[in-house]
Amino acid sequence: MSYTAKVLLVEDDREIVENLTEYLSTEGYLVKSVNTQKDTMEILEKETFDLLLLDVTLKQGNGYGVCTAVKEKYDLPVIFLTALDDEFSVVTGLDMGADDYISKPFRPRELVSRMRSVLRRSGRTQAVVNIRDIRIDTEKGIVMRAGQELFLSALEYRLLLVFVNNRGMVLTRGRLLDEIWDAAGEFVNDNTLTVYIKRLREKIEKDPQNPEIIMTVRGMGYRLGE
Q: What CATH number belongs to 128-224?
């Protein structure tokens, strides 16, 4: 299965690194972390990334210096993560070439939304996701299996995207209900969810009775198969 983007997190707070890495991983991102400018430049020489999440205040140096060094050498979008939310700090970061600026403490979903926006603007969004023989083009809203287009209802497509955006994570029925209720704009009950999962499996699974894409986790919920 393909990942949305490869992210380099430059942050020296271990708790933030652990929590953010775990959350972004459930959203489908590959995350690596470093905590100094030296380490940042060294890893960029060896690996390619799609996005840089950069803390302004580092124990060794500061994020502004890292941003300047990165922008001089690489075509890499940068989002600043910082507790400094005064106008001067924001303007300084943007003038140095940062693509966005989000203040701590931030809401993880807001960060992911901003990341997706920056990735789209920079042309680095992975619009196509492949799961087994299923191909999902998120820009065109098209789902195909073995080269044949599948016709999903709006809620079936939304449900599939919820699984894709939370790959590797077990989703409870309550969480799924919240997600598709928001999309439908009307109440969706537990029985309706059962029907939509059944319909979606009938369209995307080779054998709906033995699903390999939308897997049941007994007593917990569902998860996306690898």
A: 1.10.10.10
